[in-house]
Amino acid sequence: MIRTIRAGCLLLTLLACPPPALAWDSSRPEVGSFISELAAEGFERGWLEATLAGGRTQQRILEAMRRPAEKTKPWHEYRAIFLTPERIAAGAEFRRQHADTLARVASDSGVPAEIIAAIIGVETFYGQRTGRFRVLDALGTLAFDYPPRAGFFRRELREFFLLAREEDLAVGDVLGSYAGAMGAPQFIPSSYRAYAVDGDGDGRRDLFGSWDDIIASVANYFVAHRWEPDAPVFAPAQPLPGATPPTSDNRLSLRDTVGSLRERGIATAGDPPAELRAALFELQGAEQPEYWVGFHNAYVITRYNRSVMYALAVYQLAEALAAEPAGPLAAQAGS
Predict the structure, then answer these.
(1) Does residue 32 sit within a domain?
(2) Which residues contact 178 (CB under 8 A, 6 or more apart)?
(3) Range of 289's domain?
(4) pTM attached to this predicted model
């Protein structure tokens, strides 16, 4: 009996410990084929083998992938993470510090300054929390040892090597999120390569140290995804008197119009045009459901992070920042 108990305790101890980190050597077929793929892109095979051999699968990354806040928290708890006095105050200060750049980029792009600032505020608390994982470890872990999305992250790992070559980054030194997002705006490698721009004219696209580049790149991301200047983002909604509110599956598609939602018993605040394409979202408030109608620009925000709660948090933080005094930006168009 004692021997059985000891064996059981040993088993529980082993289960409580994370599995050892796995190396990525070329003897693993998926690693070897990846090395061959990059070698065909002009990378030196020996350097690739040594670089990947220095990476490790991180159990913490796998655990984080299984419990993102967007999927584990109700809206009222998720909102409370980002709509804090501290974050709003930091955002107002960020707008004051970068007033000229934000004003210029907002004027050129049509993306409101407060939306740009809110993205950076939600993503990294204005550059204060950019991630502590090596991007090599994050992307390699998910490319080689996370089967549900291995194909996607293998492509991002390839993009990271290409980006590092283009922007002269040290592959083993770049830090980011558990999903391999980098810099103050948290661009994944493919987005960095596709949408980052040189905002300060120094010939580089630096999302780690140049606020001109960071601000211009966030705006360019939205422009590339067809942001509509001076158009609405979200509006509060409520069931019409006597109507049974329709259920919403919170799908990220504009399958309705303001008019068709009204026919289904939903009134949209602000009386937007009936023909405006829209989507109804039902979110869990602290005491009762909240109804929101999202428009095209809300959908654009979800191209950054495919979550209704994320987009609404960005919008509400932007609204809070627009209400804060910010010097020359006080006259900027709202979101």
Answers:
(1) no
(2) 60, 61, 64, 65, 131, 133, 138
(3) 234-294
(4) 0.88
